[in-house]
Write a structure and sequence with these properties.
This protein is α/β, with parallel strands linked by helices. The protein has ten helices and four strands, in the order H-H-H-H-H-H-E-H-E-H-E-E-H-H. Among the domains are: 30-72 and 83-130; 154-250, Vaccinia Virus protein VP39 (Rossmann fold, 3-Layer(aba) Sandwich). It has a four-stranded parallel sheet with strand order 3-2-1-4, covered by helices on one side. The chain is rod-shaped, with a radius of gyration of 35 Å. The chain starts with 15 loop residues before the first helix and ends in a 9-residue tail after the last helix. Belongs to the eukaryotic/archaeal PrmC-related family. One of its GO terms (molecular function) is protein methyltransferase activity. Pfam families: MTS (PF05175), Snapin_Pallidin (PF14712).
Length: 289
């Protein structure tokens, strides 16, 4: 099964609701669009409410001052009934201003809560995006390359899905300093780790020199991934206990010794055919490579 530019969608979240939230791209896009649509209006409304509250507070202070002055004038005059009515009107206005101020304060508190909810949802979406691994691009590979290396297939993408599920653990708890992939082939596995695990030295080995070259090209085509690939058999040249994260998608096709030797017998030097045989022939007990 070919899968060249697919995007892994598996995530490793404990919360089922959060996992469902991240598994529906259409709903995620709509939710993000709605949040972005309302946020500017909410910010503008928040500013207007704050401005209105400030104005109301200033008006309240002025009314209280005016009321005090009128009361003083009324007290200084024996008979000025017209001020008595005005004082009552001002008292009523003062009560209305107090009510409006309380309403505005309540509205502002609700807007603050809404802001906090929006920020929480945005943080949740950012966390979901952080644990999604995109399949590295292999558009740079040619048919000639695939005559010498194993073309990424279903087993390759299943391994990527498994790594994506454990990406949060790898990044935050394991925090590897050195990661090594044995038999990198096209290089999409080690490139994914190099792209998403920061501060990790990513290496690969392959018995096929063409695969080593292709792995480096794949890493270069998927910045900021950086991978160094060395031709060797398994880990023959790697120092013991020097690797924190070891990756291996071994040949898994059961192959007899006779079939293996027959597959290697081709005209000429047989380099191309031998390289491909090494990618799938797993030996009689799938222990030999």
């Amino acid at each position: 099964m070919e899968r060249k530019d697919s995007t892994s969608t598996a995530t490793s979240l404990d919360d089922e609701n959060t996992e469902n939230f991240g598994s529906n791209p259409t709903r995620d896009i709509l939710a993000e669009g709605i949040l972005n649509l309302f946020k500017p209006s909410i910010d503008k409304l928040d500013e207007s409410v704050q401005s209105a509250r400030d104005s109301q507070q200033e008006l309240k202070v002025q009314l209280e001052s005016l009321l005090k002055q009128l009361q003083e004038i009324e007290a200084s005059q024996d008979q000025m009934p017209e001020f008595s009515g005005k004082v009552k009107e001002l008292i009523n206005i003062k009560h209305k201003v107090s009510v409006i101020t309380n309403v505005l304060q309540t509205t502002q508190e609700r807007l603050i809560n809404l802001h906090q909810l929006i920020e929480k949802e945005e943080a949740k979406r950012r966390n979901l995006l952080d644990i999604i691994m995109e399949t590295p691009s292999i558009n740079h590979l040619t048919p000639q390359d695939y005559q010498n290396i194993y073309e990424p297939a279903e087993d390759s993408f299943l391994l990527l899905d498994a790594l994506e599920k454990d990406l949060d653990y790898i990044q935050k708890k394991l925090s590897p300093k050195v990661c090594l992939e044995i038999g990198s082939g096209s290089g999409i596995i080690i490139t994914s780790i190099a792209k998403y695990v920061k501060g990790c030295l990513c290496l690969s080995t392959d018995i096929n020199n063409v695969a080593c070259s292709v792995t480096k090209r794949t890493a270069s085509a998927n910045p900021p991934a950086k991978v160094d690939s060395v031709q060797m058999n398994l880990v023959d040249g790697i120092r013991d206990k020097s690797v924190d994260l070891l990756l291996f998608n071994p040949p898994y096709v059961v192959t007899s010794d006779e079939e293996l030797e027959t597959s290697k017998m081709v005209e000429g030097d047989g380099v191309t055919s031998k390289n491909l045989v090494y990618t799938w022939a797993g030996g009689e007990m799938v222990e030999e490579s």
